[in-house]
Amino acid sequence: MKDPKDKRPSADERRDFLKRLLAGIIGTVLGLFPAAAGLKFFFDPLRRKSIVGAPVRVTSIEALPADGVPRKFPVIADREDAWNKFANVPIGAVYLRRTPEGKLEALNVVCPHAGCPVDFKPEQGKFLCPCHNSLFNVDGKIADTASPAARPLDSLTVELRNEKEIWVKFQNYEAGKAKKIPVA
Ligand code: FES
């Protein structure tokens, strides 16, 4: 029994105080996690929204002859980097082709071996990479088993809008991998 004149906290009161203190500390720490995640998102430029991967109008159907020969086009779009937004800048390039059946095909110009841009060689009807001689068929498939590229050229989603606009969902993929792994 505690002496009424004794002003010092009892053992029970001290225990209650410590419990409340501990609960307060845990609550504060748990509350910090969402706040920290939010700040990381805000300050990490790599996590900010990018338009890469969104459909981009590349050209019109009139600019793409129906002879089955691929033509190279720049992809111009708005781009966001770490802290800035740039309007209408080149974000890559594609080879577009109208197949004899009238189908549209789009290939990223970047060689999947190590990232050099490939050239289309009309005399061979193939794409050749000038860096290490990977050779690809007109549809992007590997044409020579000696090619160091581990996968075909990267095909991209392409569509015709309003009967004449060619739109491409532009995307880069990691070089040197057998699978297509999108670059964020
Ligand atoms: S970068 Fe194309 S073959 Fe190496």
Question: Whole-number radius of gyration?
Answer: 29 Å
How does the major sheet shape up?
Answer: 6 strands, antiparallel
* Classification by helices and strands: alpha+beta
Oligomer: single chain
Overall spatial form: elongated
Number of DSSP strand runs:
9
H/I helix tally: 1
Ranges where pLDDT stays below 50 over 5 or more residues in a row are: 31-50
Instruction: Provide the β-strand percentage band.
Output: 25-35%
Quote the distance from N terminus to C terminus: 68 Å
The percentage helix is 10-25%
Provide mean pLDDT, rounded. Answer: 84
Bound small molecules, deduplicated: FE2/S2 (inorganic) cluster
Topology:
Elements: H1 11-43, E1 55-60, E2 71-80, E3 85-98, E4 104-108, E5 119-121, E6 126-128, E7 135-137, E8 155-161, E9 165-169
Antiparallel strand pairs: 1-9, 2-3, 3-4, 4-8, 5-6, 6-7, 8-9
Bound molecules: FE2/S2 (inorganic) cluster.
Keywords:
184 residues, 18% helix, 1 helix, alpha+beta, 3-stranded antiparallel beta sheet, binds FE2/S2 (inorganic) cluster
